[in-house]
Design goal:
The complex is a heterodimer. Chain A is an all-beta fold. In chain A, about 0% of the residues lie in helices and about 50% in strands. In chain A, a hairpin with a 5-residue loop joins strand 9 (about 95-100) and strand 10 (about 105). Chain A starts with a strand and ends with a strand. In chain B, the strands form 2 sheets. In chain B, strands 2, 4, 5, 6, 9, 10 and 11 form a 7-stranded mixed beta sheet that branches. In chain B, strands 1-3-8-7 form a 4-stranded antiparallel beta sheet, with no helix packed on it. Classes of the chains: A mainly beta, B mainly beta.
């Protein structure tokens, strides 16, 4: 059974760094072809893909945020991470991680609010 | 970036009838390997998105066969036959062909 769960700070101030963790089970990021992605969704709005990390540590970022994003993984502990630097109110959203087999499994999402 | 354009933005359907949602991409989603990298997701109210259709026409695991996907290189359709109450939500198409992955704005399905 594949599950994913996101965790994060909930609220942070502008200019801070947002650190998110995706803890998953039912698959391994050491398996050939496996990947995890991060997608976010501002309240009442659509989906925005942020980044992917693959079994071979290949990483892909959305160019619109590339300089601010860092994705990483801890294969031993079945976790993937996303950091977003210098956050702004525009980064307020629900952040999802999903298994990148077409994003066939999603976490429940974690709400992040950026506010002074 | 590849732009995904969905239509209509909302649709109201009588239970038991069928519904179709269109999605158009600004670039061909057909890879040289023969696979068309368009996906369909449903986000039920208050829930995470769930995969319905992958690679244009393949039904995801556990998804009722009332759902089907079809299309060409740039024009795609999600069809729901015999709409049920559990189908209410926002439907998104997405392209996973190239970076950055992009999604349509969503189509809200409601019941009459």
């Amino acid at each position: 059974q594949v599950t994913l769960k996101e965790s994060g700070p909930g609220i942070l101030q502008p200019s801070q760094t947002l650190s998110l963790t995706c803890t998953f089970s039912g698959f391994s990021l050491s398996t050939y072809g496996m990947g995890v992605g991060w997608i976010r969704q501002p309240s009442g709005k659509g989906l925005e893909w942020l980044a992917n990390i693959w079994w071979d540590d290949d990483k892909y970022y959305n160019p619109s945020l590339k300089n601010r994003l860092t994705i990483s993984k801890d294969t031993s502990n079945n976790q993937a991470f996303l950091k977003i630097t210098n956050v702004d109110t525009a980064d307020t959203a629900t952040y999802y991680c999903a298994r990148e087999r077409g994003f066939d499994y999603w976490g429940q999402g974690v709400m992040v609010t950026v506010s002074s | 970036d590849i732009v995904m354009t969905q239509a209509p933005l909302s649709v109201s359907v009588t239970p038991g009838e069928s519904a179709s949602i269109s999605c158009r991409s600004s670039k061909s989603l057909l890879h040289s390997n023969g696979i068309t990298y368009v996906y369909w997701y449903l986000q039920k109210p208050g829930k995470s998105p769930q995969l319905l259709i992958y690679r244009m026409s393949n039904l995801a695991s556990g998804v009722p066969d009332r759902f089907s996907g079809s299309g060409s290189e740039t024009d795609f359709t999600l069809k729901i036959s015999r709409v049920e109450a559990e189908d209410v939500g926002i439907y998104y198409c997405g392209q996973l062909l190239e970076n950055p992955y992009t999604f349509g704005a969503g189509t809200k399905l409601e019941l009459k």
